[in-house]
Structure formats: C-alpha cells, structure tokens
C-alpha cells in the first residue's frame, strides 16, 4: 500500500531516488501506526516522524525544507512562518544548531538563486560597490 501511495505521488511530483525511498519509509511507518490504532493497540509511540527527532541538517532537502517546530514542508522556510512559532530565522538556526549562513530553503531553490546571481554578476557588483563606499 505504501508503494502505491508513493507511486501516485511520484507521478505528479518529481522526486530523486533518495526522496522516494525516504517517502516510502515514512508512509509505511504512518500506515503501521494507523493500523495499530485501528486495532486498538496504540502504545503512544511518539517518535519516528516527529520533527523534534529529525537531524536539523536532514530537514533541508533537495526539493523541500521541513520546519523542525511543526513538521510542515516548504520550499522556503520564511520569516513569516517562523514568526508563528515566535522566532526569527536567527533564533531558529541557533536553536537547532544550523550555521547562521545556512539558507532555510530547499537545495534546488538555493542552487537556482545562486545560478541567477552569478549570471547577473551580483558578486562582482557587490565588491565594486563596497570598494566605492569604503571610508
């Protein structure tokens, strides 16, 4: 059943092989939990998909970034969303041990932005601006 669910999702959303295997595992775990709840055997097992047990570096994936506070998935973890949790991006990075220069966006989005910045020569323009405005 898990493979059928993931196959349906993969037919609509491009996923890497690593993402497919991760989604299969997560869907399988969720289906097992649902089955145990239906059978009346839920033991209160609260680990697995809970974001607080996820490695912070693993929350930033190729096509999504997972909020470690609530578990929602985004292309970009915005300041607006983090404000709902009462924190800034700096607070979030410090709390979860992420580098302060780490982008809180999907790796594919970060790469696309980097490529556009290089094509427009933004790095060279910044260097020139800084040189012209030094005291």
UniProtKB/TrEMBL annotation:
GO terms for biological process: regulation of DNA-templated transcription. Residues 39-58 are annotated as: Disordered. Signal peptide: none annotated. GO terms for molecular function: DNA binding; zinc ion binding. Coiled coil: none annotated. Belongs to the ros/MucR family. This is Transcriptional regulator. It comes from Entotheonella factor. The lineage of its organism: Bacteria, Pseudomonadati, Nitrospinota/Tectimicrobiota group, Candidatus Tectimicrobiota, Candidatus Entotheonellia.
């Amino acid at each position: 059943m898990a493979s059928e669910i993931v196959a349906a999702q993969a037919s609509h959303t491009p996923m890497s092989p690593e993402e497919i295997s991760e989604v299969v595992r997560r869907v399988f775990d969720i289906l097992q939990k649902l089955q145990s709840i239906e059978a009346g055997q839920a033991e209160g097992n609260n680990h697995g998909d809970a974001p607080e047990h996820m490695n912070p570096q693993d929350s930033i994936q190729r096509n999504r970034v997972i909020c470690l506070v609530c578990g929602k998935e985004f292309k970009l973890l915005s300041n607006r969303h983090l404000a709902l949790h009462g924190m800034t991006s700096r607070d979030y990075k410090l709390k979860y041990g992420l580098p302060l220069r780490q982008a809180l966006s999907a790796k594919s989005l970060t790469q696309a932005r980097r490529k556009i910045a290089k094509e427009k020569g933004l790095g060279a323009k910044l260097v020139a601006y800084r040189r012209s405005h030094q005291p």
